[in-house]
Amino acid sequence: MKLALSLSxxxxxxxxxxxxxxxxxxxxxSFFNALSSLCGERFEGKMTFPTEGQDSFAGKLLVATxxxxxxxxxxxxxxxxxxxxxxxxxTKTDKGLQLKHDHRHEDGTPDEINMxxxxxxxxxxxxxxSFEADTHTAxxxxxxxxxxxxxxxxxxxxxxxxHLERHNAPRFTAELHMSDK
Length: 181
Fold this sequence. Notes:
By secondary structure, the protein is α+β, with helices and mostly antiparallel strands. It has helices at residues 2-24, 27-36, 135-140; strands at 42-49, 62-65, 68-69, 73-80, 83-93, 96-103, 116-120, 128-133, 148-153, 159-166, 169-178. Strand 5 (83-93) and strand 6 (96-103) form a beta hairpin.
């Protein structure tokens, strides 16, 4: 009985150490944890690409607040000026880390173009992940089928960069700095 109990304890501790090691060696989970550590923080900034005046976000204050964090999901409302219709959802899934864009009308109902995004590819790091468009995105926005969205944190986690590429060319970049408010 003691031997069986000892073996069970050993097996559990070994499994725990494997799980811990696997999580520590997984850049997607490390990124999720880094972002989650910023829960409650507000980032403010502006569009840095394309050049001013060539996008509807030009000249508007951009605000991302790491608002809600659970063990499996981070919600980041993203405001463009007075427009508060967007939320980035970063979710742990069985297939890896996922980014979705939740667009809502003022009354809370989903926009027609909603929940687009995709899974993180395998080229990310502890502070940066890139998410390739999924089939849902391609079905509701055919032109976005080649989209890759990237989210990056600076080494000190005080700057958040959101970048979009389409057809392997830059389409949009925002640099947001942690607010002291």
